[in-house]
Amino acid sequence: MFKYQDHYFKKAQEQWYKARSAFKLEEIQDKFHIFDKNTRTILDIWCAPWSRMQYAAAQSQANKIKDYKIIWFDILNIMVKLPNVFTYKQDITDIAKVEEILNQNQIESFDLIQSDMAPFTIWLKDIDAIRSFGLIEQTLWIYDKYLKPDWKFVIKLFMWPGFDQFVLDMKKKYWWTKIKLFKPKSSRKESKEIFLIKI
Which of 79, 80, 97, 197 has the least C-beta neighbours within 10 A? Predict the structure, then answer.
């Protein structure tokens, strides 16, 4: 499989991150301060290959939070040995199963939800766009039920057909707070990805 070996690829290797995505989260943190001393419960959706969880755990430790907890749901079966990180091979759209796992972990709410969800592309832009936004919309139930009203999320989107309407709908949904769009420098220039951030 081809790997895009630029400055951030090499930097990730040097700092023992699994992928460049840690630096995307780092840029978001530097600009929007999504992690602070009160960020104790974090949900990560589709985090493979888990460099963002490495960064999130490091931020929790830097803020001297002893009782933080990070829950990760992914359709891939990946075991991660990081303190206070709990990984599950679980489809986030299966509400009953997800709620069962959260109950087992005594999770009633999250301070931060970060999502890297994307469908497996078939390289037909319109179809991929429909599948991408449809997939994200199927996860919004967990934001409604488990995200604390004044807390934050970071959702990866693609600037495909339907992007503008989805962003508009999210701004209407969370009208009382700030919704920002941000493309980190560590994203590849040709990538259509951008991050929707509630702060």
Answer: 79
Rounded Cα distance, 4 and 61, in Å: 30
In DSSP terms, which residues pair with 193 in a beta bridge?
158
Beta strand 193-198 with 69-74 is unpaired
Q: Give strand pairing partners of 120.
A: none
Distance of CA 157 to the CA centre of its chain: 10
- Tens of pLDDT, residue by residue over 54-105, are 889 889 999 999 899 999 999 888 777 888 999 999 999 999 999 999 999 9
Indicate the pTM of the whole model: 0.86
> Tens digits of per-residue pLDDT, 95-122?
999 999 999 999 999 999 999 887 666 5
Give all domains of the chain, ordered by start, each with its CATH number.
Answer: 40-198 (3.40.50.150)
Sorted by sequence, the CB contacts under 8 Å of residue 52 that are 6+ apart come out as 21, 22, 24, 25, 44, 114, 116
Residue 156: active-site member: yes
Q: What is the DSSP string of 49-105?
A: T-HHHHHHHHHHHHTT-TT-EEEEEESS------TTEEEEE--TT-HHHHHHHHHHT
Q: Are 85 and 55 in contact (CB under 8 A)?
A: no
Catalytic residue, chosen from 24, 152, 156, 198, is 156
